[in-house]
């Protein structure tokens, strides 16, 4: 049971396709008073790049931004401080929050591998409730394991009677080897006369062209196949309505499941994924999930001939945003999620 009635929450999060806004709204729905701030001073491509490469170059702007937050919240007292990722969040800010709110619950969540962002390890000591979507990180750093979630808008799209236009659809950011793997999948699908659609998204033309020069994975990218327009949730849902399955291509060094995984399965669509760790989750079944090797793409035509097997309602709830909030704020779920892992 989630009861946050009257609780005051200071919530900072990296911007990730408006999921942070959905979380803030749901916390408010549960009765909390939420003060939300973006954890970055700016979400321009230049700012994101500087923070990621070396935030020392951005030191003054970051400090000024976080001091302004401290000034803005002034003498407010909070029951919870909730941080998602915190790539730009400085230590002095976390220390100040704890000092001015001695009884506060400090909650941390990360949806990226800590090996990719080692600077985030320093944050962990400030939090008494800390979670990651990456099972290996939960073991290595002795923190809670909680996968991501789906938004309710994605649930039960099977109720519509629209005929499918595609056998498979890919919608995702252009990073790492996604294009290379995606085009291999497209080629195999074409040979099997399977209907496919691929939407590769990049943040900005200049940034992408520069990245294309230095990133070997992007050098092969046909610029005609990349879009610089971000799809909103409703546009993505409209694509899901028209397809039998959705392709998920995880980062090569990432075992944690993408948010796409949860949205696809909750929507009643089948999933094609390069992440073999999905077999360790309660919603995995070979009828619904086709695991492929990114180095040796093979598609089973029979996979597309059957309907999705209905997911148990208790499992579906555990995959939801409500369950995600319940885990972080009320009752950790490590025992549940770890019980499905193959020995």
Could you characterize what this model shows?
The chain is an alpha/beta fold. The chain has two domains: 8-147 and 321-338, Response regulator (Rossmann fold, 3-Layer(aba) Sandwich); 152-318, Rossmann fold. It has twelve helices and twelve strands. The strands form two sheets. The protein has a six-stranded parallel β-sheet. Helix 1 (19-29) links the parallel strand 1 and strand 2 (33-38). The longest helix has 15 residues, at 59-73. The protein is globular and about 65 Å long. This is Lipopolysaccharide biosynthesis protein.
Indicate how many domains the architecture comprises.
2
For the residues shown, what is the average pLDDT? Answer: 90
Largest sheet: 6 strands, parallel
Helix segment count?
A: 12
Side by side, the strands of the main sheet go 2-1-3-4-5-6
What is the highest CATH level, the class of the largest domain?
Alpha Beta
Q: Helix share of residues?
A: 25-40%
CATH architectural arrangement of the largest domain: 3-Layer(aba) Sandwich
Report the strand count: 12
Kindly estimate the percentage of residues that lie in beta strands according to DSSP.
Answer: 15-25%
Report, as a whole number of angstroms, the end-to-end distance: 31 Å
CATH topology of the largest domain: Rossmann fold
- Cα radius of gyration in angstroms: 21 Å
Return residue spans where pLDDT drops below 50 for at least 5 consecutive residues: 46-54
Backbone shape: globular
Order of helices and strands: EHEHHEHEEHEEHEHEHEHEEHHH
Give the class from helix and strand content and strand pairing: alpha/beta
Protein name: Lipopolysaccharide biosynthesis protein
Organism: Chryseobacterium taichungense
């Amino acid at each position: 049971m989630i009861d946050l009635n009257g609780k005051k929450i200071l919530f900072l999060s990296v911007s990730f396709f408006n999921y942070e806004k959905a979380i803030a709204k749901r916390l408010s729905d549960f009765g909390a008073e939420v003060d939300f701030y973006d954890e970055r001073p700016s979400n321009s491509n230049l700012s994101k790049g500087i923070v990621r490469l070396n935030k020392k170059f951005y030191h003054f702007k970051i400090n000024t931004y976080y001091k302004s937050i401290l000034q803005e919240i002034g003498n407010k007292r909070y029951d919870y401080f909730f941080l998602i990722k915190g790539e730009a969040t400085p230590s002095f800010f976390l220390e100040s929050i704890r000092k001015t709110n001695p009884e506060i619950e400090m909650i941390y969540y990360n949806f990226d591998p800590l090996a990719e962002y080692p600077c985030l390890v320093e944050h962990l000591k400030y939090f008494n409730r800390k979670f990651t979507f990456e099972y290996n990180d939960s073991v290595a750093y002795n923190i809670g394991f909680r996968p991501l979630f789906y938004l309710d808008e994605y649930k039960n799209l099977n109720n519509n009677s629209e005929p499918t236009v595609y056998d498979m659809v890919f919608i995702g950011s252009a990073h790492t080897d996604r294009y290379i793997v995606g085009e291999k999948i497209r080629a195999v699908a074409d040979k099997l006369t399977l209907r496919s659609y691929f939407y590769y998204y990049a943040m900005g033309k200049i940034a992408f062209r520069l990245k294309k020069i230095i990133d070997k994975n992007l050098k092969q990218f046909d610029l005609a196949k990349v879009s610089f327009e971000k799809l909103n949730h409703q546009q993505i849902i409209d694509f899901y309505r028209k397809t039998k399955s959705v392709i998920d291509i995880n980062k090569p060094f990432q075992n944690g499941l993408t948010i796409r995984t949860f949205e696809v399965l909750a929507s009643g669509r089948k999933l094609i994924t390069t992440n073999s760790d999905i077999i360790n989750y309660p919603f995995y079944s070979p009828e619904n999930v086709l695991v492929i090797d990114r180095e040796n793409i093979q598609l089973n035509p029979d996979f597309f001939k059957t309907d999705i097997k209905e997911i148990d309602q208790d499992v579906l709830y555990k995959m939801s945003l409500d369950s995600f909030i319940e885990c972080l704020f009320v009752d950790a779920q490590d025992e549940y999620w770890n019980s499905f892992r193959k020995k």
